[in-house]
Amino acid sequence: MPPRNATDPVLDNSSPYFVHPGDGPSSVVVTPLLTGSNYQSWARSMKRALGAKMKLEFVDGSLP
Fold first, then answer.
1. CA neighbor of 7 nearest in space, from 61, 17, 57, 23
2. Cis peptide bond upstream of 2, omega within 30
3. Three-state SS annotation for 36-52
4. H or E stretch including 57?
5. Quick one: pLDDT at residue 12?
6. What's the pLDDT at 1?
7. Are 6 and 12 in contact (CB under 8 A)?
8. Could you give the CA distance from residue 2 to residue 17 in angstroms, rounded to a whole number?
């Protein structure tokens, strides 16, 4: 496997494909956690959090 360089989108922190080492499947992105009764406020908070991390495009389908 060839070594990755700085132009690799996975290593470029301005790329939407960059994943910070602190981000992972068990990360709590927003609180409180989703329940059936708090969907509207949870969705708003989640969109804000994903937008701040430049990851909203993965969820809304706009990533090319």
1. 17
2. no
3. HHHHHHHHHHHHHHHHH
4. helix 56-60
5. 84
6. 57
7. yes
8. 19
Structure tokens at 33: 């956690």
Joined tokens for residue 46: 């989640």
Sequence-separated (6 or more) residues with CB below 8 Å from residue 56: 47, 50, 62
Q: Domain-by-domain residue ranges, the chain?
A: 30-63
| Strand segments (E) across 1-64 | none
Q: To which residue do tokens 């969820």 refer?
A: 59
Alpha-carbon distance of 23 to 48, in angstroms, equals: 16
For residue 46, what pLDDT is reported?
94
Q: Is 30 buried (19+), middle (13-18) or exposed (0-12) by CB count in 10 A?
A: middle
Q: What is the pLDDT of residue 4?
A: 58
Q: Which residues of the chain have pLDDT under 70?
A: 1-6
